[in-house]
Specification:
mainly alpha, flat
């Protein structure tokens, strides 16, 4: 009886804490959504009040002034390049490092660990010089490769932990059946670590989509701006119209929320299964 009572109290306390966290996370988002259909005057008067009328023109003006049509195309190109590059490189590196197939694997692990601690600001000037010399300034795909390099160390560690969860006997059985290295990797190993690949893709995709420092430095020109840069370029010019800025914020975060809600189950499953070994 006491055990059931303590379990009930513990469960209620856990639910209350989760509800508190949910309110803390959702209240700012709902406030932005409500204010996105209000006029600037209504927001200044009382930002917590419900709108008297729905001003949908904020969205059309924000879409036009923020150049989001071109911005979303560039963001998709940038994030897609970063995700594809990271998945290919981290999968191959993780497979090799998990199986200890090379003698220098401890040194490579230390290298990736150190690489995660070095700030990107140290490489900005030489990287900008190389981009300028190669005429790559404004090239979305080249910047996507840079973002992939920044995310690669963490992705390698994650993929290595997923490959460690695959039984060695399964790999040996496939090799006995005559599978080559490429067949083993493509038809046996990668399908087994697909939750890890989804997890890595989500992490890299979100970071690339919201990235500012690298993109604002190397993507020069309005036509090369991502959606994030398009939104930030409105600061200063349109900050006098908070309704328009709120609508632009909803346009910015809407696709990210929808994408994360769609893949959250695979993302959480991947994190849990990848945490079994390290």
């Amino acid at each position: 009886m006491r055990v059931r009572l303590s379990q009930g109290i513990g469960g209620t306390a856990a639910h209350l804490i989760l509800i508190l966290f949910a309110i803390t996370a959702l209240f700012p988002l709902s406030l932005v959504a409500v204010n996105s259909v209000k006029t600037h005057r209504e927001i200044v008067k009382n930002p917590l009040a419900l709108p008297q009328t729905l001003d949908w023109e904020n969205y059309s003006e924000a879409w036009e002034f923020g150049h989001f049509q071109q911005g979303f195309v560039n963001s998709i190109k940038l994030s897609g390049t970063a995700i594809l590059t990271v998945l290919v490189c981290s999968s191959l590196a993780g497979y090799v490092l998990a199986g200890k197939k090379i003698r220098t694997w401890p040194l490579i692990m230390i290298y990736f660990m150190v690489a995660m601690t070095v700030p990107i600001q140290l490489f900005m000037f030489p990287l900008y010089y190389v981009f300028a010399r190669l005429h790559l300034l404004g090239n979305v795909y080249a910047v996507g490769v840079v973002l992939a390099a920044l995310n690669l160390p963490l992705a390698v560690f994650l993929m290595r932990s997923f490959f460690l969860n695959v039984p060695v006997e399964l790999e040996e059985a496939a090799m006995i059946d005559g599978a080559g290295t490429l067949q083993l990797l493509l038809r046996v190993m990668l399908p087994l670590v697909s939750p890890g690949m989804i997890t890595v893709a989500v992490i890299v995709g979100l970071q690339s989509w919201n990235e500012y420092l690298i993109t604002s430095t190397f993507l020069q020109g309005q036509s090369n701006f991502t959606a994030t840069l398009g939104f930030l370029s409105m600061n200063g010019t349109y900050t006098v119209d908070q309704g328009l800025m709120m609508a632009a914020a909803v346009i910015m975060i809407g696709p990210v929320i929808v994408f994360f809600v769609a893949v959250q189950r695979y993302f959480i499953d991947g994190l849990v299964s990848g945490a079994l070994k390290g």
